[in-house]
Amino acid sequence: MALKTEELVLNMGPQHPSTHGVLRLLVELDGELVVNVKPIIGYLHRCFEKHCEALSYNQIVPYTDRLDYLASMSNNLSYVMGVEKLMGIQVPERVEYIRVIMAELQRIASHTVALGTYGLDIGAFTPFLFLFRDREKILDIFEATCGARLLYNYIWVGGLSHDIPDEFVPMVKKFIKEFRPTIEEVNELLSFNKIFIERTANIGVLPPDTAINYGITGPSLRGSGIKWDLRKNDPYSIYDRFDFDIPVGEGKVGTVGDSWDRYWVRMLEMEQSLRIIEQAIDNIPDGDVHEMVPKRIKAPKGNVYVRAENPKGELGFFILSDGKNNPFRVKVRPPSFVNLSVLGELSKGYLVADLIAILGSLDIVLGEIDR
Amino acid sequence: MKTPEEVYNILKEKFGEDVILSYDDSQPVEPVISVDPLKIHEVGKFLRDDENLLFDSLMVLSGVDDFNGKKVKDEEGNLKEEGRTLSVYYNLHSMKLNHKVLVRVSTPIEDPKVESVEHVWRTADWHEREAYDMYGIIFLNHHDLRRILMPDDWGERYPLRKDYEDPEYYNGMKVPY
């Protein structure tokens, strides 16, 4: 007589999945193999889109900080570009340069968290400390500029809240000099560590056509070998002036599109961000950052969809305006929301322990998933 | 690369004016193509697969409460609202040909039904669940139409509708507390 077996449903969370936020995974198991995963989200829902309908356009900026709270500068930038496009505002050169530098510093800060906590998920503690030490330096730069370390409300419609202080340029240059050796160090400690490779190579392979159909963006898409970066493919701000590469997954230690490739793309992207900052930092033109800040924002009737390459992928804002002081509708397209939806497809047939490695490699932030 | 107007003309030739309802470029930024809500899956499939269009990525799918109802008096003299619609906007982009288009469907609020495009673009799965959650739009032939951000027992209340009011009690707890 054959042994009677049935599938087991396991509830992971709300909390645990290595605590990237309050997330619950409904996992169907066959022995130790994952049959299906259903993410249950909404535990952090705080009505962002409903609030937007009652706020004026510039009051929304601090709310966008709280979407992906590890990349607040980039969130500000994306939203503000939408309102500027709707109103036809052309911002001064100086503002554009500072915005790009801030967005790239923010990308490095977000990637250090992603990579550090990914190491933690797998069981490597030391790289996390190295990366957080350097993230602190970026936060210091932000603090010197606008007083806040996490939620900045720095990029405003038409300009910036403060001009950069005198010590900004030397601080950034010092950071670049000190950060390059950290990348080397982390590569030695983690990237090419045999245990780490065993845990992540060939795990959670995401084929390119599946990735596009699911709407995956950012490093997770590039990990599958697709050269797609909005900074190059749909350029915004002044990114077309800088020389940088788009790293893609090549299957260096496993298959193209596995968890290690997604990790490695983030590692390489930090170097590219440093390159952009280096090109921009000495060329910031003079000007007034408040020159184009409108006294009262009243967008004309219409709709606009803008998107920007956030550290986690494409962050888009669909704004509908009916010509009043408040937007009629703001819909956010959070990259983590879309990237998480592929988890079920991605983890079929792997072990429970691999599920954590796959989830970590997608780099999600629940703040923007639940909004 | 095609402009939205060219896309509109291709669609009109293929599906006729019964399905492709109108083209609106009166607003400043992006023109809107309106489509029949019960044919949107066929139009979507064509948009994705036609070799001149190749809209392989659905950037975002947004539900909207148009809040365009008109107050009219019925025979007994009571005021009631008529003609209010819910809309779904599809922002499409082609990664291969690098062009964009904005498609809209509108459906009456009393019986909001739209065909699901989940089978065309898988990314629509969660976006449609969100539109259902927030506006109560029913997506026909969606494989798993459940609430996504709000709790499952939130009832027949759809928070992003413009006339939404907080419930007094939720599971015996007073709201707002």
Walk me through the structure.
- The complex is a heterodimer of chains A (371) and B (177).
- By secondary structure, chain A is an alpha+beta fold.
- Chain A has one domain: Cytochrome-c3 Hydrogenase, chain B.
- In chain A, strands 1-2-3 form a three-stranded antiparallel beta sheet.
- In chain A, α11 runs parallel beside α14.
- Chain A is globular.
- Chain B is of the alpha+beta class and 177 residues long.
- Chain B has one domain: NADH:ubiquinone oxidoreductase Nqo5 subunit (Beta Polymerase, domain 2), CATH 3.30.460.80.
- Chain B is built from three helices and eleven strands, in the order αββαββββββαβββ.
- A five-stranded mixed beta sheet of chain B has the order 1-2-7-6-3. A two-stranded antiparallel ribbon of chain B has the order 4-5. Chain B has a two-stranded parallel sheet with strand order 8-9.
Entry keywords:
heterodimer; A: 371 residues; alpha+beta; Cytochrome-c3 Hydrogenase, chain B; three-stranded antiparallel beta sheet; 15 helices; 13% strand; globular; B: 177 residues; Beta Polymerase, domain 2; five-stranded mixed beta sheet; 3 helices; 19% helix
Topology overview:
The complex is a heterodimer of chains A (371) and B (177).
Chain A: E1 8-12, E2 24-30, E3 33-40, H1 48-52, H2 61-65, H3 72-87, H4 93-122, H5 126-146, E4 155-156, E5 159-160, H6 168-191, H7 194-200, H8 208-213, H9 219-222, H10 230-233, H11 259-281, E6 302-310, E7 313-321, E8 329-333, H12 335-340, H13 343-347, H14 352-362, H15 366-370
Antiparallel strand pairs in A: 1-2, 2-3, 4-5, 6-7, 7-8
Helix pairs in contact in A: 3-4, 4-5, 4-11, 4-14, 5-6, 6-11, 11-14
Chain B: H1 4-15, E1 20-24, E2 32-35, H2 40-49, E3 57-65, E4 70-73, E5 79-82, E6 85-93, E7 100-108, E8 113-115, H3 124-135, E9 138-140, E10 169-170, E11 173-174
Parallel strand pairs in B: 2-7, 8-9
Antiparallel strand pairs in B: 1-2, 3-6, 4-5, 6-7, 10-11
